Amino acid sequence: ITPFQDPKELKVSGRFGDFLIDLGDDTPDKWVAAVAAKHAPAGPAVDIGCGVGPMVRRMMMAGRSTVALDISVDTVVLCRAILNAKVTESFVPTHRRGCAATRVPFGPTAGKVLFAVADAANLPLMSGTIAWAHMGFLLDVLDTETLGKALVAAVDAVGRSGILTISTAYGQPGAMLPDRKSTR
């Protein structure tokens, strides 16, 4: 599900389509965070591929100690600056391959957050120590082999009782990156 479209704009039908339309103006990403915050066991959260930190903020607002993790040093620095209100405007994704200058719609975020520069396929987390892990848009940017390793690492971090949530920037089921081969 893409967080960049209002659920009403998604051209889906049947029970799943009705479910998405019932979300109203809430974005699917916001909905995913609310469900995970409610159902994940007590404990820390990690946003794997944190970007500018919207999910990190949601995790912190849910009262979670949170790790904001990304492979890009620049991204982690920007995420920290946004969450600590050191910048008031940032470029954020608006759709596939697009971005726009956007005013940060909130002040400093209160809560415990650790910032880490790390590869999603080699997480610096102990097995089973994370209650809620989120992977935002990694399905869209990682090659198949690295993505497989990243998924295994995330599942290992959450262990048996945690929750793993995933969001993607693609709005069409089965959308593929140019370097991937479709089986259709």
Strand fraction: 15-25%
Distance between the ends? 20 Å
Cα shape: globular
The number of E-state strands comes to 7
The helix tally amounts to 6
Q: Uncertain regions: pLDDT < 50 for 5+ in a row? A: 1-5, 16-25, 171-184
Description:
The protein is an alpha/beta fold and 184 residues long. It is 32% helix and 20% strand. The protein contains six helices and seven strands. The protein has helices at residues 14-21, 28-39, 54-61, 73-83, 138-141, 144-158; strands at residues 45-48, 66-70, 89-95, 98-103, 113-117, 132-136, 163-167. It has a five-stranded parallel β-sheet, sandwiched between helices. α3 links the parallel β1 and β2 (66-70). The chain is globular. The two termini are 20 Å apart. Mean pLDDT is 78; it is low at 1-5, 16-25 and 171-184.
Annotation keywords:
184 residues; alpha/beta; two-stranded antiparallel ribbon; 6 helices; 20% strand; globular; disordered N terminus; disordered C terminus
Q: Nutshell version of this structure?
A:
By secondary structure, this protein is of the alpha/beta class.
What's the helix and strand layout?
Layout: H1 14-21, H2 28-39, E1 45-48, H3 54-61, E2 66-70, H4 73-83, E3 89-95, E4 98-103, E5 113-117, E6 132-136, H5 138-141, H6 144-158, E7 163-167
Parallel strand pairs: 1-2, 1-6, 2-5, 6-7
Antiparallel strand pairs: 3-4
